[in-house]
């Protein structure tokens, strides 16, 4: 049986924690879709096409193995995408009990709507404190984001200084 999973997220921007979850999920499934989704509750920093491009570069630069496809989705329910591509599993990285509490009702609804199960993966402890919103805030204030994001993202977010 060919097992397809989807790792959804806004990835605005992708972090090393995201990349860790993608890497481990790719080892668990035959095909993995990294899906950039639009979150109407968030104001995005990066356009969707740029996020897709940065994710593809991060995956290539990290040398991740497996059948990993980077896509975007903005119309309909997430489970509609899963049904369209034959995915039976959603993979969510959870950093804390707050993430689990937030994700659990959605996981139940996704299972009820389309029979799509959700698998929660814990991040590497080195990345458990990092979120995309934290990275955006640090970058906006001129801080160094290189410990938290793939090199392509750090380069993209780097704010030019008077010396550069």
From TrEMBL:
Site (Transition state stabilizer): 18
MF terms in GO: ATP binding; pantetheine-phosphate adenylyltransferase activity
Residues that, per the record, bind substrate: 10, 42, 78, 92
Residues that, per the record, bind ATP: 10-11, 18, 93-95, 103, 127-133
Domain of life: Bacteria
One GO BP annotation of this record: coenzyme A biosynthetic process
Catalytic activity: (R)-4'-phosphopantetheine + ATP + H(+) = 3'-dephospho-CoA + diphosphate
Any one annotated GO CC term: cytoplasm
Acetylation listed as a keyword: no
Lipid metabolism among keywords: no
Known EC number: 2.7.7.3
Key words, A-Z: ATP-binding, Coenzyme A biosynthesis, Cytoplasm, Magnesium, Nucleotide-binding, Nucleotidyltransferase, Transferase
Residue ranges of every copy of the Cytidyltransferase-like domain listed in the record: 7-137
Broad enzyme group: transferase
Its biological purpose: Reversibly transfers an adenylyl group from ATP to 4'-phosphopantetheine, yielding dephospho-CoA (dPCoA) and pyrophosphate.
Family: Belongs to the bacterial CoaD family.
PANTHER family: PHOSPHOPANTETHEINE ADENYLYLTRANSFERASE (PTHR21342)
Protein's UniProt name: Phosphopantetheine adenylyltransferase
Gene this protein is translated from: coaD
């Amino acid at each position: 049986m060919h097992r397809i999973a989807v790792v959804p997220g806004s990835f605005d921007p992708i972090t090393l924690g995201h990349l860790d979850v993608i890497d481990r999920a790719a080892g668990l499934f035959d095909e993995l879709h990294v899906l950039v989704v639009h979150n109407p509750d968030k104001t995005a920093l990066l356009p969707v096409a740029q996020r897709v491009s940065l994710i593809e570069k991060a995956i290539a630069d990290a040398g991740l193995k497996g059948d990993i496809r980077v896509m975007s989705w903005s119309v309909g329910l997430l489970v509609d995408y899963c049904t369209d591509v034959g995915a039976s599993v959603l993979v969510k990285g959870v950093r804390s009990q707050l993430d689990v509490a937030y994700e659990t009702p959605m996981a139940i609804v996704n299972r009820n709507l389309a029979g799509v199960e959700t698998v929660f993966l814990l991040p590497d402890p080195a990345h458990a404190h990092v979120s995309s919103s934290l990275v955006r805030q640090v970058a906006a204030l001129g801080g160094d984001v290189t410990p938290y994001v793939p090199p392509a993202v750090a380069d993209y977010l780097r704010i030019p200084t008077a010396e550069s």
